[in-house]
Write the C-alpha cells for this entry.
Amino acid sequence: MIELGLSERRALRVGRMSASAFRYEPRPDRNVQLREQIVALAHRHKRYGVGMIHLKLRQAGMLVNYKRVERLYQDANLQVRRRKRKKVLIGDRQPLYRPLAANEVWSMDFVFDRTAEGRVLKCLTVVDDATHEAVAVEVERAISGHGVARVMDRLALSRGLPKIIRSDNGKEFCGKAMVQWAYQRGVTLRLIEPGKPNQNAYIESFNGRLRDECLNEHWFPNLLQARAVIETWRREYNGERPKRSLVG
C-alpha cells in the first residue's frame, strides 16, 4: 500500500498491523555454530542420542543448556532409531556390587559377529567394574580357555591383574585352563548363576554398546579389518566417550 502512495501510518491502519510488527527485523541466529557441532557429532557417532551428545559438548568445555541442545537436535531430525530387542523374562533382581577402585573386579564375556565371507568373529570383552574402562576386546576366530589365559597374562604386563574376575559359566571361563591359571595367579573366579545375566550387568551393558555403536555400524571384510576398527572404537570409548554413570 505504501507503494501505491499511502502514508506508512495510513497503510498500517488499513492493514491492521502495528508499526512494531512492520519494522521488526529478526535477530541473527545465535545457534548456527552449536547446531553445526551437534550435527557433526551425530554424524560421527550415529548411535548417540541427545543425552550423549550433550555430554560430549560438556566434555569439550561448552556450558550449554540441555534443553537447548535437545531442541536443536530435534529440529535437525537427528533422533536415533531404536532397534528392536528380544523380550526376555525378568528374573530376580539384586543390587550389583560395585568396587571402589580399579583392578578390584573385572568382568568378561564373549560377543559374536561375522566377517563378509560369513566366518565367525569371537570377541573376548573385558571391563573394569569400577572405572567402566574397556580393558580389552580381543578379536579372534576362536578363543579357548588357554586363549583367555594368554590374554589375561598379556594384560597383567601392562596394568596388573584384578582380585576378582566375574563371568558366566562358559567352558572357556570355568574350564581347567582358567581354573589353573587363576589359582597360580591368586585371582578369584566368580561365576554368575546360570540364566541370570543381570548378575554381570557391567559387561552386558558394555557388550550392548559395542554391538550397537561398532559391530552393527561396520561391515568387516576380514579379521584384520575387524581388529583395527574394534580397537579404534575401544580406545575412543575409553578416552573420549562420556560415561554417564560417572558424571558428577
